[in-house]
Amino acid sequence: MFFKRVFFGGKLESEVLRLVNEHLKILVEVCEVFKLALERDDLSLLKSVCELEDEGDRVRREIAMKIYEGAFLPYVRSNIYRFAEIVDEAIDKVEDTAYDYVYLKSCRDSELLEVVKGDLLRIAELNLKSSRRLMEAFNYLVEGGNLSEVTLKIRVYEREVDSIKHELSKKIRGVNVDVWSALTFLDLLHHIVSVTDLIEDAGDVVQIINVSLR
User: Fold this and answer.
1) Which domains does the chain have, with CATH numbers?
2) pTM: predicted TM-score of the whole model, two decimal places
3) 59 near 85, Cβ under 8 Å?
4) Contact between 154 and 134 (Cβ < 8 Å)
5) CA angle, 93 then 180 then 160, to 5°
6) Which of 35, 65, 175, 192 has the most CB atoms less than 10 A away?
7) How deeply is 151 buried, as exposed, middle or buried, from its count of CB atoms within 10 A (0-12, 13-18, 19+)?
C-alpha cells in the first residue's frame, strides 16, 4: 500500500488519475442517461449521450498527453493508456446504441422494440452496474480494497448480459419487420452487449496493473 501511494503520488501521475476518474464518471453517466431514456421513452435524453461521448474523447486525449509527458514508469504506461482506450470505446458503444435506437423508433413498425424493450432495459441496467463497479475497481487499485471481488461482480454482470442476448435472439425470430429494421436491431444488440464486454476487459487491465505494482 505504501508503494502504491509513492507510485501514484507524483504530479503527472496524480493528474492522470484525476483524468481517469473523470473519464469513468462520463462512462457511468452515459450508461445512466441511456437507461433513463429507455425507462422514460424520452429520445431527447439521447442527445446528451453524444455530448458525453465528445467529452469522453477529450478526456482520453488529455490522458494520452499526460502519459507521453512522462507519467508512470514505462512498464505501466501502456496499460494505463489501454485502460483509457477501452473505457472510451465503451462510451462510443453506448452512443452507437443510442443512434440505432433512435432509428428504430423512427420506423413505422414499432413491434420489434415493443417486444425487446424490457430486455434492452435490463441490459442497460447491467451496463450501468458494471460501469459503477469498474470505477470502484480503479479506486481500489489506487487506494486499496478487495479488487478481485469487484472484478468478479463485473464478470457476473457480463455473463448475465450474454444470457439475455441469447434469449433475445430466440425471441425476435417471430417478429415481422423489414430488413433494414432487422439489421439495425442486430447492430443495436451488438453495441449494447459490447459495453459490458469492454467493461470486463477494462477490469482485467486493472488487475494486470495491480499485479505489475507488486
Assistant:
1) 2-212 (1.20.58.220)
2) 0.92
3) no
4) yes
5) 40
6) 192
7) buried
